[in-house]
Specification:
Elements (H helix, E strand, L loop, with lengths): L2 E2 L6 E2 L3 E3 L4 H13 L4 E4 L14 E4 L6 E5 L4 E5 L4 H10 L2 E2 L11 H6 L16 E7 L5 E4 L6 H5 L7 E8 L1 E2 L6 E4 L2 H5 L2 H6 L4 E5 L4 H7 L25 E5 L1
Parallel strand pairs: 3-5, 4-5
Antiparallel strand pairs: 1-2, 6-7, 7-11, 8-12, 9-10, 9-11, 13-15, 14-15
Length: about 250
């Protein structure tokens, strides 16, 4: 197989591709690889700008380690396989009336890859996806399987691990009740945001902007709509967005 990252800037043809079916099998293959001096890389979605996930020797597919394993309705916690795509996890959570507190823009990543690389969303009062992790199942090169929990000395490293500690085979997530977001999108001059960027960031649960540089003369011709330069606050669960428009697209939700 030929592996490539999402943008096609990094490619590789691994010598071997293996697909463990559980944590024990993952630990066993890591032990064999360590004994023979081989280099192991897990296969996620390849959504990385760098070569951090480039599998040049042994590639490990986590496709068999996917799906919700268990769910505690009382606490809102659930165990999910490391190879579960975010889009599939979101659908599973919706069926349970649950959601993750925060997400990024892309839902193609595996949950383990998104957590291991510190994938984040927006929001001054919110955190990255890894903040929802309360347990990590980790297969190690010693042939063992660890269950990492907060305060055990390995948990924090095991969350955003960059693939350096072993193979994450499952994650326990703390979810929240399902909610809907309302998005508001529109154009805004870049100067309006730069005048007080913190006020813009604090005006909604999530706020982002995209700069599309164009001549000022084209700005006047393209649209007469103007988003306000002062932003009223939004309630939790309300998405405001002023995005994908010129000269500056801003997202708030």
């Amino acid at each position: 197989m030929t592996w490539r990252n999402w943008s096609g800037t990094v490619t590789a043809t691994p010598d071997e591709v293996v697909a463990p079916v559980d944590a024990g099998a993952a630990a066993a293959l890591l032990a064999r690889a360590a004994a023979s001096g081989r280099r192991v890389r897990p296969l996620g979605s390849g959504h990385s700008f760098s070569a951090i996930g480039q599998p040049t020797d042994m590639a490990v597919s986590l496709a068999a380690l996917a799906g919700v394993r268990s769910h505690n309705a009382a606490t809102g916690r659930l165990w999910v396989g490391a190879g579960t795509r975010l889009r599939d996890l979101n659908r599973a959570l919706e069926r349970l009336g649950l959601a993750l507190p925060n997400l990024g823009d892309i839902d193609a990543q595996t949950i383990a890859g998104a957590v291991a690389t510190g994938t984040h969303g927006t929001g001054l009062g919110l955190f990255g996806i890894a903040a929802a992790v309360v347990g990590v199942e980790l297969a190690t090169a010693s042939g063992g399987v660890l269950r990492c929990v907060p305060g055990d000395g390995t948990f924090e490293a095991a969350r955003i691990n960059l693939g350096a500690l072993g193979l994450v085979t499952a994650l326990e997530l703390q979810t929240v009740p399902a909610f809907r977001l309302r998005a508001v999108e529109g154009p805004l001059p870049l100067e309006a945001i730069l005048a007080d960027p913190r006020a813009f960031a604090a005006s909604a649960d999530h706020a982002e902007f995209f700069w599309f540089p164009t001549p000022r003369s084209r700005r006047r011709d393209a649209t007469t709509a103007r988003a306000p330069t002062r932003w009223p606050p939004c309630r939790r669960g309300v998405r405001r967005s002023t995005t994908r428009s010129w000269p500056t697209g801003c997202s708030r939700w």
